[in-house]
Amino acid sequence: MCYTFSPMPVLSSRVDPAAAEFQSNHAALLGLVEELRALEAKVVAHSAKAAPKFRKRGQLLPRERLARLLDPGAPFLELSRLAGLGMHDDDGDAGASGGGSVIGVGFVSGVRCLVLAHDSAIKGGAITPMGLEKSLRAQEIARLNKLPCVSLVESAGANLLYQSELFVKGGRVFCNMARLSAAGIPQLTVVHGSSTAGGAYVPGLSDVVVAVRGKARIFLAGPPLVKAALGEDAEEEALGGADMHAETSGLVEHVARDDEHALELLRELVASLGWPAVDAGPPHEPIEPRCSPDELLGVVPADPRQPYDVREVIARLVDDSRFLEFKAGFGRNTVCGHARLLGYPVGIVGNNGPLLPQCSVKAAHFIQLCCQSGTPLLYLQNTTGYMVGTEAEQGGAVKHGAKMIQAVANATVPQLTLLIGGGYGAGNYGMCGRAFDPRFLFAWPNCRVAVMGGEQVAEVMKIITRAKFARQGIEPDEEQLEAMSAHLREQIDREALPYFATARLWDDGIIDPRDSRRVLGFALATVYEAERRQLRPNTFGVARG
In terms of DSSP H, where are the helices of 123-281? Predict the structure, then answer.
């Protein structure tokens, strides 16, 4: 049922798209978006290079499998596309691997699912440390949002060069699968190729398994290791083939002729889940913003140090550009209020500068009210942090900041975060950064995340170093001090860049600002559906006979 829109005030924009400042901002941010798209394209291109090899084997490429699985024309939200960028064996350019997997939220036979496909076209889908973190984050998203987990498996297993970073924590994947199944969240798997060693437990811990005949290989140890350990000459098909597991071991429920057939079976299996129905669609009719979301590139400066009014962002995100502001005259550096986004009610907390003591009290009050009414929260983060200095400290900066952090940490409603500028210091915490477990956290390509700016860190260290030398009665070498400061400034500024953050999964992906309304609307629909779904938990996960 849809309701008429309540008469919330309309936000009026003061931005002139023809102004030089707008055009400059637009060009700068567009350049960052193009850089983002180029990096993402390299991941896809790196995978596509293996097409001749896959064709020769009669297989679909991993992304082709995913396209066959998902409902045609339905939205798909890919997560952490640049996981591990520039880390481990990923050189950040032609070798970009996206963590060795493609993960996202999409629809299979009309059911919203968490989908994971090993990208076996890149180094056999070998798992790197950040690829592991990406899988663990996906499982957390599935748990919080009550999403069936669908896995398309073909992997060389753990990259043994990094076994010390993978082995112990890697067991968490299997623990999570068992707990998700026990919670009543289905685990469905297609084995397209190799699933060996610890990877064999992925189908082993799944509720239902489809294996491709002649291609699937599921065993704890392959023929070489069996020969080395037991002196036995084992043949791959007898050791772990699809037919053997379907007819002898009982590990596999369905045998498919090829990739296409396996994906058809999987779609039918998802459709047969009897997954609890939820009310379709948002509670209110979506209304396009009066201010175009395309203008977001010009509204926000590419340099996060430059100020702007977060209301201009809100006006281009929310339905009909309507926003009921909370305590507008109090704690003016923080903007709070109610709106609807693609028909879903949402409480918004945004920054117009550092978090003053009044801002902290205001935000804490607003967050608690949203929890009381069951309204999801959206944080539009762009802050240098909590205000410092004598006046702020005497005004209760720590005491009141703690109230805000308490409210965010203990909020009982789903929280979403969009990093649209700086995420510095404890302000990153108070505005629901990664450490505070938002359901989803996305970032714009102009964002920065660090304890403070490189310039501030360098200046602080100079002051500390000079004081240390003064206590020792030594005159500091100013040239050396400046060189140290320059090196530190470069390091901090480099580590604050969005690609450094997204590689380490400090967000769930960098997005084009113009896609923010669509992405946030999809996330809100996901959490809205989750809040209304009742699961059927078991004492244990599904145990295969």
Answer: 129-145, 163-182, 201-204, 223-230, 236-240, 242-244, 259-271
Residue 64 neighbours by CB under 8 Å, 6+ apart? none
Q: What is the pLDDT of residues 161-212, one digit of tens each?
A: 888 888 899 899 999 999 999 999 999 999 999 998 888 899 999 999 999 9
DSSP string, 254-316: EEESSHHHHHHHHHHHHHTT-PPP---S-SB-----SS-GGGHHHHS-SSTTS---HHHHHTT
Express each pLDDT in 505-527 by its tens digit.
Answer: 999 999 999 999 999 999 999 99
Segment holding 211, helix H or strand E: strand 208-212
Sign of CA dihedral 512, 287, 375, 383: positive
Q: Reduced to 3 states, what is the DSSP secondary structure of residue 38?
A: helix
Instruction: Determine whether 545 is exposed, middle or buried from the number of CB atoms within 10 Å of its CB (0-12, 13-18, 19+).
Output: exposed
- Around Cβ 183, how many Cβ atoms within 10 Å? 15
Q: Which long-range contacts (CB under 8 A, 24 or more apart) does 462-470 make?
A: none
pTM greater than the 0.85 cutoff: yes
CA distance readout (Å), 11 to 15, 297, 313, 323, 326: 12, 18, 10, 6, 14
What is d(CA 81, CA 464) in angstroms, rounded to the nearest whole number? 40
In single-letter form, the type of residue at position 266 comes to L
